[in-house]
Amino acid sequence: MDIYDSAGRHVARLRRNAWVFNLGDEYASTTDPASLSLMHTPSGEVLVEVSVKGTNEIHVVRATFYTSTGMLIEATKEHLKVGPITMAQSQLDARAAGISISAAGIGIG
Fold first, then answer.
1. Which of 23, 48, 79, 105 could form a Cys-Cys staple with 88, CB 3.0–4.6 A?
2. Total domain count for the chain?
3. Are the C-beta atoms of residues 4 and 12 closer than 8 Å to each other?
4. What domain range is 19 assigned to?
5. How big, in percent rounded to 5, are the helix, strand and coil portions of the chain?
6. CB neighbours (10 Å) of residue 9?
7. HSE on the CB side for 77, CA within 13 Å?
8. CB 68, CB 78: distance < 8 Å
9. Chain centroid to CA 11
10. What is the pLDDT of residues 67-102, one digit of tens each?
């Protein structure tokens, strides 16, 4: 996962549960076989919390992060918010298809 700040500045990259870079060592990750979480340590804010449900299934418990353009993405059990777009009360099973999220909308396929 690439981590950006609200100005779209690339501040960290986590790859295969190891930091490729982490400016100022401001981000921490915790992993175990059943979960992963990313945290901004100075503020204590949890950016991403994921639980592993099976070999091919994960559940995003919560996620709040910025894109490379500074757009805020927020995902919870109740909704997915991408900038001004909110998707709620929906279930999405992409079955290995790509998901595209942009200011124009959300696309699958």
1. 79
2. 1
3. no
4. 2-108
5. 5, 60, 35
6. 12
7. 5
8. no
9. 14
10. 999 999 998 888 888 887 787 776 555 555 566 766
